[in-house]
Write a structure and sequence with these properties.
The protein is built from nine helices and 13 strands. By secondary structure, the protein is of the alpha/beta class. The chain has two domains: 64-186, Rossmann fold (3-Layer(aba) Sandwich); 199-292, no CATH class. Strands 9, 10, 11, 12 and 13 form a five-stranded antiparallel β-sheet that branches. The longest helix is centred in the first third of the chain and has 18 residues, at 27-44.
């Protein structure tokens, strides 16, 4: 959250100055600690690069299609995953109900998982909407394809790859598209018969996500990530796959729908294109990052 950079930096400087003022540390100690902290913070961007929050430019080749406008949302059913996205963000269900009063809004929760909610949405809607992360969007896309229904993507996850590629940065952008009937066609890829819109993966990353999801309802998302990471690092083993005719042992593999450009490590951004293609990247057991397209 870039907006927190200035207040957090000021708070850190205040704590550092207080250590010197109280006489519990020498100025050199505080300066050295500050430098080490800054270097470690910058070094982490080598493995977790900063994600751009700018909307991706809608490519001219992205096919715009005619779509029915829904000024008040009548005929649209939204499924909202309130657990997705930043902890202190406003629930998108409230935003959707205010702007589209005639739309039906279904929130997932105890006793109603995402799959059941999407079944309910597809039963009588003319358009399905999904508010959640990229995983929720993939699940909704599968249901929309089965029923041949348009899909409205409301960015309310952490990274929102697809929404950003379409130029959607907020629920308000999606609402305006619904009200004015603005739509575009996108490519859909499949893996093992399951559709995906941005990336699919298998290997240690999937093991990490599965282990995290089993724990996060009990101990919270980020503690669950730490515990799951320790478990996966201890128990995960590489798998053997064939890529472009070559057998490789890999720890994890990401398959991108169209152009993705991993560098030394997976990055948190991608670019969408309407050219029929796929790109795969794998972290091999030898420690190299490989990409093929």
């Amino acid at each position: 959250m870039p907006a927190l950079g200035l207040p957090l930096g000021a708070a850190a400087a205040g704590v550092a100055a207080s250590r010197v003022y109280a006489g519990v540390h020498y100025p050199g100690d505080v300066l050295a600690g500050s430098v080490v902290g800054a270097v470690v913070g910058l070094a982490t961007t080598r493995f977790w690069p900063l994600t751009s929050h700018e909307p991706a430019q809608l490519r001219p080749s992205l096919a715009r299609v005619d779509s029915e406008p829904f000024p008040d949302g009548d005929g649209v059913t939204f499924v909202v995953n309130p657990e997705a996205g930043p902890a202190f963000a406003r629930n998108p269900a409230d935003v959707l109900r205010e702007a589209l009063p005639a739309a039906r809004v279904i929130e997932t929760g105890e006793g109603l998982d995402l799959g059941k909610a999407l079944e309910m949405a597809a039963a009588d809607a003319r358009t399905i909407g999904i508010a959640g992360g990229d995983g929720s969007v993939n699940a909704a896309a599968e249901k929309a394809l089965d029923r041949n229904l348009p899909l409205v993507v409301v960015p309310s996850g952490t990274l929102n790859h697809l929404a950003r590629d379409l130029g959607l940065t907020s629920a308000r952008d999606s609402i305006e598209a619904v009200q004015h009937g603005q739509a575009a066609a996108v490519d859909v890829s499949t893996i093992d018969g399951k559709p995906f819109l941005n990336t699919a993966s298998f290997g240690s990353y999937v093991e990490l996500v599965d282990a995290r999801e089993k724990l996060e309802t009990r101990i919270g998302k980020w503690p669950a990530v730490v515990v799951a990471l320790v478990k996966v690092l201890r128990t995960s083993r590489p798998v053997t796959v064939e890529i472009n005719g070559e057998l490789l042992r890999v720890w994890m593999i990401f398959i991108g729908n169209c152009r993705y450009h991993p560098q030394a490590s997976p990055r948190a951004g991608g670019s969408a294109s309407t050219t029929a293609c796929s790109t795969s990247g794998s972290s091999t057991a030898g420690g190299r990052w490989r990409a093929s397209g």
